[in-house]
Amino acid sequence: MQIYWTKINRIIEETAEVKTYLLDCPEDFIWEEGSHTHFALEGFNAGDKPNRSLIRHMSISTLPHENLIGITTRIRENCSEFKAILRNLEVGNEVAIFKTHSNVPLKRENKNVYLLSSGVGLATFRPLVLDYFERADNVNQIHSLNIDSSKDFLFTNIFKSAPDKNFTSQFVDNRKDYYEEVKNLATDKDGLFYIVGSDEFLVQNIEVLYEQGIKPEQIMLDKHEKALPDFLSIVETL
């Protein structure tokens, strides 16, 4: 396993609670849209075993041509040890990234694509939308739906409806409106549905989609292939 040590190049305060850490890109580090990585803080591998409290699984919110590796995360006032350390890091501090992989690359199958996310989960979809804007081949249209009760919606410069690009962006701040809209989107029985958020959020969305007749193969989750059956098999209980 190769561990890439790199430096924080810039820190962007997206909202009061959300920051994006832009990391220098190591020369041979590669990734694609929809990628996640293991993001670790100094000291995580100092002992005989990795200190897992200093490691988090994070989505990469940038594309390679942006030449910086973006990690976008929410840091609340009361937070974990990891987030507390991260909050105090500055430009020039070192962090580590390793085990990078994409579970949710943009599928180009001449279908409509629906991006369903909660809060900072939208960071996973930022590269997919940018990739689509640059090359819309074999994607009919994209519709993004994000729920964030804080009402501090992210990346509104990118996630804004653009009819000329066949792109629609919706933000809602409550579950009732969100799931009603999911049901409306699921009237497209041939669409592809990407979901990013907490495990509970994934399960709730899958249940709604299944109730509307959407099939497991139409649902994409930011989960390792081995973990997918644990989520998608809930269809058997409905």
UniProtKB/TrEMBL annotation:
Gene3D superfamilies: Nucleotide-binding domain of ferredoxin-NADP reductase (FNR) module, Translation factors. InterPro entries: FNR_nucleotide-bd, Riboflavin_synthase-like_b-brl. It comes from the Bacteria. Signal peptide: none annotated. This is Dihydropteridine reductase.
